[in-house]
Design brief:
The complex is a heterotrimer of chains A (272), B (267) and C (279). By secondary structure, chain A is mostly helical. Chain A is built from ten helices and no strands. The longest helix of chain C is centred in the last third of the chain and has 18 residues, at 184-201. Chain C has twelve helices and ten strands. The chains are: A mainly alpha (272), B alpha/beta (267), C alpha/beta (279). Chains in contact: A-B, B-C.
Chain lengths: 272, 267, 279
């Protein structure tokens, strides 16, 4: 079954990224920051599985160390986006008065700002750092969550169980917490997974542009940037981070798809 | 109860009108309705979809505010009441909806669903509200013919008829005086319909309930109600004791409703 | 001469658990015949109809025989079945809102069925479409044809579906609870129209419903299904007037609400047939 397959493959890929970054915290084959001039641009070998880069740094070590900032940016960016975006979406979906309309308009405005533009603004104010990347990607992703949450909320609000709660005088906050949130949670989970993949891409792009993480900290996007000068003679420099990015993005996307199918109650109803 | 207006009608509506704006046009879903419901009444509200019957009960239950006109519950004007002032109405009026797939939260357990009215801040404070939530849930589940052991299960594990029983149990939990049933058997198989109708007639007697029963099917209403109001295009076109309307309908629309009832054509 | 439709020992299983949804059901329909398939939800009546039309998902295993005008059509490739569907047999669904494409005007949806099976250009089909919409009792066919499904009432939508099912003058129309979602008054009018149009076309009809009363108004013969099995079959008068099986007696009893004493305890199917357990 296709559904199961995407869930399993996604989970395995995501698990791999998670494991590599965790291991990378405590152990890497070589120091991912130590420049060894004698080992410049070595091809993959038994001692350096993925070769070394222009500074003589072991690429596998850099990939492992870089996984950490990928996850960090992903978790915080998606966290910011979901924690701000979902409540806004719930307000917009449950309130048909001026408050709801203001949220919808504000979301539309924020949607017009791409992450890169925000990152340039933040980099100007805060300097280029991982924090800048997290903030920029996170804030740029808020409207995505607001919209998806609002769409879900509107669907839930049309159900009779909401009216049944109102008949008993259950307050709006409780309805939001007890009925609306649990019912849109699968939707949010799927979106989080997809947004995570996009955040990884965005982080790579921002690092590549020099707007995110400073050069000495290893990230996959930065490695790709550094690799382009040697693309013709030493393509292995680009292949490792490119495969890592593609794998992580694919993993989170597949996981999102798999979750969507797994959590869709309508599919459950049919299977029952 | 020593609230003012115990002598008067339970519900009184005067000049009740509700307009909606649809595609720039103003539609009058409810158009100047006057209505009284007394304690112990079993009132059927009959009409086809779009006749305004659901809007009417939403106005009576203070889930919606009228464009003009007023609703009194127990002598209290509920059209201008704050949500706190509605506490009595909220505890005494409960609704059973048409489609239990939509009226039961699929992510909640049956026990939580049935307990919900009891956990409402408005209702909890009232003296008549059952204190022991768990015991009350078990009690009402048994009342509607379900096992209390079913409480930890989810709605989708039940058949359509059982789900409607769960919805009825939830409505009974806070010991309401009024049960509003909005097409409670229209989404059910004919064979399940009889079970739910039997349950409703039993409950009305046992619990001494006042019932508003909304339906498009006059035969169903005849079985459970003693009075009927026939609605068409937001107005009540005929209103009276059921047997009288059944035997000698005066409005042409009521006659059409009677003629349209599916009967077993045993020839 | 062979029957129009002959179903023999039809069984349907679903999925890995191999639960039997339909269990050795046999039915026969002659030309112009109207058979009501009655049962509670889960009795397998819709699955039977879908199996006959070859519309079941691939997870279903269908065995037995379905002969259309003497020719075995069970296991026919979908391309050939598609040719038969809409032309020689068609279907009216229960939920007109989901059976119609929300983004396509009603007239075009009827025209599409015409075009699909008669290769008619859209312009050329317009008069025929309007004629068909009028024939199913829609008072203002031009306006209806130019409306989207959400702009129509439930009854109008069901009539549009009926027009789609009848426009190619099929020999068999399968109706799956076509009026269950409708009000009684609308139901009565839609049934009357269906009755007329079937008569006009001389089409046979397989009418599925949980409501014996509705079936009795349209069909000359009735087959009762329970737990996927055929319980009883016969003319409507036989089955309603002198039901042989307890379960059928129960169904007859619950269907005649207007004869019950108001407020009295209504008879239940279980009062008659306790075998087989709850569904």
């Amino acid at each position: 079954m296709m559904r199961r397959a995407s869930l399993v493959v996604g989970a395995v890929l995501v698990g791999l990224v998670l494991m590599v970054s965790l291991v990378g915290l405590v152990w890497t084959p070589y120091d991912p920051a130590r420049v060894v001039p004698g080992d410049r641009l070595l091809s993959p070998s038994a001692t350096h599985w993925l070769g070394t880069d222009a500074f003589g740094i072991d690429i596998l070590s850099r990939i492992m160390a870089g996984a950490r900032s990928v996850l960090l940016v992903g978790v915080f960016a998606v966290g910011i986006a979901a924690l701000v975006g979902v409540p806004l979406g719930i307000v917009a979906g449950m309130n048909s008065g001026w408050l709801g309309r203001v949220v919808v308009r504000a979301t539309d405005v924020l949607y017009a700002f791409p992450a890169v533009l925000l990152a340039i603004l933040f980099a100007g104010a805060l300097g280029s750092s991982t924090t800048t990347a997290m903030l920029a990607i996170g804030i740029a992703t808020i409207p995505v969550f607001t919209r998806i949450a609002r769409a879900g909320v509107l669907q839930v609000m049309s159900q009779d169980f909401i009216t049944a709660s109102r008949v008993s005088g259950i307050g709006w906050l409780r309805i939001a917490w007890r009925h609306v949130l649990p019912n849109i949670a699968p939707l949010i989970g799927v979106q989080a997974s997809v947004s995570f993949a996009l955040a990884i891409l965005a982080e790579a792009a921002l690092s590549y542009l020099g707007l995110a993480t400073p050069p000495e900290v290893p990230t996959w996007g930065r490695m790709l940037y550094d690799a382009q000068r040697h693309l013709l003679n030493d393509p292995h420099l680009a292949i490792a981070p490119a495969v890592a990015i593609a794998g992580a993005v694919l993993g989170f996307n597949l996981l999102g798809d798999g979750l969507r199918d797994l959590l869709d109650p309508r599919l459950k109803e049919v299977a029952e | 109860m020593t609230t003012p207006g115990t002598e008067g009608p339970l519900f009184r509506a005067a000049g009740l009108t509700r307009e909606f704006r649809r595609d720039g046009r103003v539609v009058r879903a409810v158009d100047g309705i006057d209505l009284e419901v007394h304690r112990g009444d079993q009132l059927g509200i009959v009409g086809e979809s779009g006749s305004g019957k659901t809007t009417l009960i939403r106005l009576l239950a203070a889930l919606d505010r009228p464009t003009s006109g007023q609703v009194w519950f127990n002598g209290q004007d509920v059209t201008r009441a704050s949500s706190k002032q509605l506490a009595t109405l909220r505890s005494q009026v409960q609704i059973v909806f048409q489609d239990p797939r939509s009226s039961l939260d699929p992510r909640m357990r049956v026990g939580e669903i049935v307990a919900e009215p009891l956990t409402s801040r408005l209702i909890r404070r009232l003296p008549d509200t059952p204190r022991d939530v768990r015991a009350r849930v078990a009690e009402v589940l048994e009342l509607v013919g379900l096992e209390p052991q079913m409480a930890p299960r989810h709605p989708h594990e039940f058949s359509g008829g059982q789900r409607q029983r769960i919805a009825i149990a939830r409505a009974l939990a806070p010991r309401p005086r009024v049960l509003i049933a909005d097409e409670p058997v229209s989404a059910l198989d004919v064979s399940v319909r009889a079970q739910v109708l039997n349950l409703l007639t039993d409950l009305v007697r046992q619990e001494d309930l006042t019932m508003l029963f909304v339906s498009h099917d006059l035969a169903v209403v005849r079985h459970v109600c003693d009075r009927v109001a026939v609605m068409r295009q937001g107005r009540i076109v005929e209103h009276g004791p059921l047997q009288q309307v059944w035997d000698a309908p005066s409005d042409p629309y009521t006659k059409e409703l009677l003629a349209a009832m599916p009967r077993l054509a045993v020839t | 001469m062979s029957a129009l439709l002959e179903v023999r020992d039809l069984s349907v299983r679903f999925g890995r658990h191999r639960t039997l949804a339909v269990d050795r059901v046999s039915l026969t329909l002659d030309e112009g015949d109207r058979l009501g398939l009655v049962g509670e939800s889960g009795s397998g009546k819709s699955v039977t109809a879908l199996a006959v039309l070859g519309l079941l998902p691939e997870t279903a295993t269908v065995t037995g025989s379905v002969r259309w005008q003497g020719r075995e059509i069970l296991g026919l490739p979908d391309r050939e079945l598609a040719k038969l569907r809409g032309q020689e047999f068609s279907m009216v669904f229960q939920e007109p809102m989901t059976a119609l494409d929300p983004l396509m005007k009603a007239g075009r949806q009827v025209a599409e069925v015409l075009g699909l099976h008669r290769g008619m250009a859209r312009g050329a089909s317009r008069p025929l479409v309007l004629e068909m919409l009028a024939a199913v009792g829609l008072a203002d066919p031009v306006r209806i044809a130019d409306s989207y499904p959400h702009q129509l009432s439930g009854g109008q939508r069901q009539r549009v579906l009926m027009a789609m099912a009848l426009v190619n003058r099929p020999d068999l129309v399968v109706c799956d609870e076509p009026t269950t979602a409708l009000d009684v008054t609308v139901q009565a009018r839609v049934l009357a129209t269906l009755d007329e149009r079937l008569d006009d076309a001389g089409a046979a009809c397989l009418f599925i419903s949980h409501d014996l009363a509705v079936v009795s108004q349209v069909c000359a013969r009735v087959a009762v299904l329970r737990h996927g099995r055929l319980v009883e079959q016969g003319t409507t008068a036989q089955v309603l007037g002198a039901p042989q099986r307890p379960y059928t007696r129960g169904l007859v009893a619950v269907a005649s609400l207007e004869h019950a004493e108001p407020g009295s305890r209504l008879p239940l199917v279980d009062d008659f047939a306790r075998d087989g357990g709850a569904s």
